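Lab notebook, bench 4. The sequencing result for the construct came back, and we need a structural model before the next group meeting so we can plan mutations. Quick request posted to the team channel:

Model the 3D structure of this chain.
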Amino acid sequence: MPRGGVSSNAPLAELEQAVITASSVESERALLEELQADLEHEREIAGWKIIGSARSGYTNEQLTTDTRKEYYPTQISAGLTHPLFGKFKDEQSQLLELEAGAENGRLKVAIRRLDALEQLRLSYIVLWGVEQKILLADAFLSTRQEDLGVLEKRKDAGHLLASDYFEFITAQDRVERERRVNHNAAERARDIIQMLTHIRVASPLIYVPDLPVSCEDSEGVLAALDQTPEILLYQNLVDLELKKQRYSRNDIKGDVTVRGFAATSEEINTEFGYGATVSVDVAMPLNPFAADSGSRVVAQKRLQRYQQELMTKTEELKLSMMERVRDLDSERSRKKDNLSQLQAATELLREKTLRINRIDGDVLEQYQRARYLYYRAATDFVDGEVRLLQSAAQVLRFCPEGGARQSLVAENTSVIRPLADASPGKTSGGSKQKSLALPPQDTTARSVVYWWNTTSLFDYPFPFADFKQQSIDHVLVSLNAGQLAYIATPEGQAKMRRLLADGQQQGLTVSLLLGEPTWILPEFRHRLMNILQLANNFDFAGVHLDMEPSQLDAGKYGLEYLAAQLLRTVQVATEVSEHPIEISIHPRMLDTTQTNICFGCGLSNLPLNRVVVMIYRTEMQAAADQMARFSKEFPGIKFAIAQSVETSLGPENSYAHQGLKSFTQVRQRFMGKDYKSGWHGDVYIQDWQSYRQLLNSSATH
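Done. Here's the predicted structure in token form:
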């Protein structure tokens, strides 16, 4: 395609490919390359560094009263040095910041490109619309001289009032002025398109704007929102701070240095000796522990601020997107009205055209009025088409790229033909932002069970008594896709509400258990959000998320990415759900030595009812010690422990092999406040089907 000159009437899809050359995009790309080069430079110089020095001088030393010694000490040294303690952490944090800066640079390139793409689409739509109105004006004014001559003769003959004559003249002048305004608007649109693509679009434009299919349905909106560069930009800030938590600021700075040297002898200046040294240099404040504690508080508050900003930005974009979707829906409704008005004006013009040569009287004046009314209706119709197309283009700002394209312009609707056609018979028609504070907590320890296989859930009677006999206070109920679809029906809603109400009367609370791991990923997260919105219609005690990242392809995504996405999913869930949110996690998620992000720091800032740690081991004291360590490290989190009675796990990991009595004792000790380990709390049993097998096994012995 020609650049910088007149093109062969390029369609919009072809121009979109060239928007990458827009000046704003090129500028951000240049900045990105600078950031990437800076990152590579810092990576190269991080870690070990070469040091060297050369010294020489003159010394006159008093040995005795009568004796002095003169010599010229010379020393050459070289070695390696490496940062330690806080200095090493500062260096690693700087690298993380540079990596995040480079990634944000890439996202800013994407944002500038999307901005330019939206501006291109809007300008192309404007160009199409004003050219349609120019053609309308040309058709209306094509008989101007002839019409004015006839009207003037009728005025002079007394068949036309002067006021009516000047009304027609004024209408002609108004159309001419609008034609000039539209011509200028077309040139401005071409200038913008050329600025964005370096392509000058030819006149007249022969292509109707076609746009990719938009994602305006509720599922598509939620799916697209989390993948917008603006959201990812704020998500990166959260991810960066999570990674930096493991390199939290340490005010104890140090270096280790290995150095070799060669020096002249003090006795004989011409002879050299040699040697080597190893040194560790440390600098710290007078109270390093207080300073370190303060640094951690600052880092945690910064993380909380970034999470709050991410939530706020998400709400802002969600509001903006929904406004655009509503505008598009409104324009679709207006289009029907505009089309009806155009059809009425077309029929009126057809009627007056048929009457003009057959009936005497003021039919010419009626014909001229019908032409002008049609011109106005057609102009309004084109403006409506432009608004509809622009609304669709603005929705596309948040939609994934690619896919089929469509034309939203009315088919079989020629607004020019009724004015331009010589034959008179030819006519056509065509959020509330949530607080990040933790909710009030119930201090009474509970027994909770996971119930995954719930095919008999709606078969009455519900086994309330079975749970109560085992001192289980709370049940996490999983629903499959068919059951979720069922509770969306009137019959299913009634049964679900009855089950929850009966449970409350029996002293048993029920939460919804959701465990599909793919919902962690941004491209599938909207499915979880839809289920949470459905769950808002019921009186569940809460929603429990058991989505284990390790069930996904860690080699493809990376544990660090999956952990960050799980944290984001939980945050979004707390925003969408009207119920308390709980989450089950593997203990390695809280171990900063196994991941590059501080997952617990992120959870600390979210309004979670429980964080259940799945410590599947039968060494009770070791499990209790691990829970106590987590509680001490993250005091803002209400922890609970999950223990397994599954037969699929070995005797070191499941109480299925130790019998019901042994497991009952362990459960009671964990829930007892006087337990010596320093930790007590809720016990979550994995799972109900396995627990029933344990019951049956114990009954037979």
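Residues 422-441 have pLDDT under 50 and may be disordered.
Will bring this to the meeting.
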